[in-house]
Each structure stands twice: as structure tokens, then as C-alpha cells.
Amino acid sequence: MYKLLRSILFLFSPEWVHYSSMNLLKLACSIGFKRRFLKWCFSPPSSFPVTIFLGLNFKNPVGLGAGFDKNARYLRELECLGFGFVEIGTVTPLPQAGNEKPRLFRLPKDKALINRMGFNNEGVEVVTIRLKEWKEKKSNSKLIIGGNIGKNKVTPNEEAWKDYEICFKKLHPYVDYFVVNVSSPNTPGLRELQEKDALKKILTHLQEINKPLDQPKPILLKIAPDLTKEQIDDVIDLAIEIKLDGLVAANTTISREQLTTTKSKLEIIGAGGLSGLPLQKRSTEIVKYISERTNGQIPVIASGGIFTTNDAKEKLNAGASLVQVWTGFVYEGPAIVKRICKNL
After folding, report:
1. Count of domains observed in the chain
2. In sequence order, which residues have a C-beta less than 8 Å from that of residue 325 and are 6 or more positions away?
3. b/e map of 283-298 (b: 16 or more CB within 10 Å)?
4. How far are the Cα atoms of 156, 214, 294, 299 from residue 237, in angstroms, in the given order?
5. Residues taking part in catalysis
6. Residues facing residue 187 across a β-bridge
7. Angle CA(152)–CA(158)–CA(163) in degrees, nearest 5?
8. Alpha carbon distance 98, 81 (integer Å)
9. Helix, strand or coil for residue 39?
10. Distance CA 179, CA 1 (A)
11. I need a labelling partner for 1 at 20 to 30 A (CA). Which of 51, 84, 96, 182 fits?
């Protein structure tokens, strides 16, 4: 059924389809019996709870990665689809429009996407208000919410730590964990912040703010799949040194190796981060390397190329505690969480 619907949806602009379909889902979920029906259709039949990160209880290990619900607009709808957790953002201090359109592209032959969104979001003030309303209305919800935070495009790298601080303080009462995003390829110069000294400054500063609070929140770091082994070692060493709560592996890649999509089409699309099936092997390698190098001491959320139960099992067997889908959600449809959890 979804394959037929997907073939129709893929005739239209990816970004337009994204917002149109989510707004239609939002409309459906505003009607009680339809919302209950959708929940019955798409929620996993049984629970697979996971407890990590300072005792956070995830109802199942399948979450939605950052970038899908940038502005926390669709939490009720995504909960109806069975997700154990949803990572909102990337959120920046000031609202920003992101890069020029078109900026999201499908590669159907590769089951992949390329995006150069550029941290388009409504800004931390608006997102905070929306999350506050969610918490008040859905106080009994078991959905875990992560806050993925970044810097504004106009903020120079030497001042980036201030942007992360602003987002951290504003979102802290309303999210369950944080992910520091320094690995998107779509904000100029952002990946330079993955160097050890720059990372340490940002992460330790957030830890200093976090530690004295009544309810400290887990702080994770999202890394790029394009890091060298030496760079990954630096990240691991730093994570152990400062007792970071976890890592997310991995963000989108700038690599275009071994794609079926023609070179001419890729040249027309241009720059951006590649996600989906081509990232599957590399992300698993990174998860396994981190797990083995740390003896499993650092929890890892695996992201990249997860479409099926076997894909999720591969990541979990490699040492991941949780998995995130994004491109897989686009290609496999709203039943992806149910299908993955059914056979775990």
C-alpha cells in the first residue's frame, strides 16, 4: 500500500511532500477516534523498554532522528506512529530560513536522500514555547524528547559556545536529553568544531551549566561519518575524559562513493549531506569501533541506513543502545517502527 502511495508522493517536491503529509497527519490526529485508530495501526504490539542515560526510560529503542521535526510541531503525531523517542531540531538561538530551495533531493535508486537544509528552524524561543505546551498537555506521555542544538550560520566559530549555551538553557526544562550538533555539512565551517579543543570547550561548558541543576540532562555528541580513525579516537578520548553521556553515530556524509545514481544527476543536485542506505555500512563500522574501543562504556545512538529489523539488529549487535530512522521513514513509511519492533 505505502509503495503505491510513495510512487505518487515521489512525483512532487520532497520538502513540499514532507510538510503536506505531516500536516495531513496532524489534522487526522486532531480527531479523537482517528488518532486512536492510527495509534492502533502503527504502534508496536509489545514493549521493548530500554533504560540508559541517567535512568531515562525509552518505551522502545526506535527513534526519529533530528531534522524531521525541526520545530517540535508533530510530537503527538509521531508518538501515534510508535516512536520511542523523537529528536527535535536542530534548534538555533535565532530563527533562520536555511539555504535556498531546492535543498532536499531523493536518490530512489540508492534509497537515499541529499539535503542541504542549513539548520532552518523557528528559533529556540518559539520551539521552547511549543515544548512547554506539549509538556503541560501531555504530562502522562512516555515519549522521550531529545533536543538537538546548533549554532546560527552568522555566529563565528569562536563564539559558537554561546549559541549552544543559549539553546541548552532555554530547552533544558522541556527535553529529556541533548545532542550537540557540530557535524552537519550544511553550515559553513561547522565541522571544524569537531576538533578536540573546540569540542572540549563547548561540551565542558554545557556540563558546568548542567551539573548543579536539580535535574541534569544527558549530553550527547553527534559525529560525522567522514571522520578519520584518528579523529574518532580523539572524540572517544575526549568523551571518556569529560565523562560525556553518549554519542550519536552518525550524521550525513559528504561522500558520493559507490552510488547507483548517475554522476550527471549528482552534479545537478550539488552539495549536501547524503543519508540512507549508502551510509549503512559506515555507520555500523563507527558504532562497532566506538563500542569495542570503550568496552561499551559510552552509550551510542546509531543512525544511518536503518530500514528494516535486520538493519536495526545490525546496529544493536554492533553495540548501539538505541537506533534512529529518518531516510528509512521516508522510504518505508509510517509502519516502520511497528515492523522493526515486531521482530526484534
Report:
1. 1
2. 62, 63, 64, 65, 303, 306, 307, 332, 336, 337, 340
3. bbebbbbbbebbeeeb
4. 26, 28, 9, 14
5. 184
6. none
7. 35
8. 28
9. helix
10. 35
11. 84
Q: Is 267 exposed, middle or buried (0-12, 13-18, 19+ CB in 10 A)?
A: exposed
DSSP-assigned states of every residue in 101-129: SP-EEEEGGGTEEEE---S-B--HHHHHH
CA max distance for the chain: 55
| Boundaries of domain holding 219 | 2-342
**Residue whose cell numbers read 505531516:** 22
Amino acid code (one letter) for 310? N
Per-residue pLDDT of the chain (344 residues; tens, 9 = 90+): 899 999 999 999 999 999 999 999 999 999 999 999 999 999 998 778 999 998 999 999 999 999 999 999 999 999 999 999 999 999 999 999 999 999 999 999 999 999 999 999 999 999 999 999 999 998 889 999 999 999 999 999 999 999 999 999 999 999 999 999 999 998 989 999 999 899 999 999 999 999 999 999 999 999 999 999 999 999 999 999 999 999 999 999 999 999 999 999 999 999 999 999 999 999 999 999 999 999 999 999 999 999 999 999 999 999 999 999 999 999 999 999 999 999 88
Other C-beta atoms closer than 10 Å to the C-beta of 168 total 22
| Residues 6 or more apart whose Cβ sits within 8 Å of residue 279 | 112, 225, 250, 252, 253, 304, 305
CATH of residue 182's domain is: 3.20.20.70
Which contiguous run of DSSP H or E holds residue 58? strand 56-58
DSSP 301: E
Side chain identity, residue 108: P
- In a 3-state reduction of DSSP, which class is residue 145? strand
* CA separation for the pair 323, 64 (Å, rounded): 8
SS (H, E, C) 242-283: HCCCEEEECCCECCCCCCCCCHHHHHHHCCCEEEEHHHHHHH
Q: Which triple of cell numbers denotes residue 150? A: 546548533
- Please tell me the total number of residues recorded for the chain in this structure: 344
Please report the sign of the dihedral spanned by the C-alpha atoms of residue 160, residue 168, residue 247, residue 74.
negative
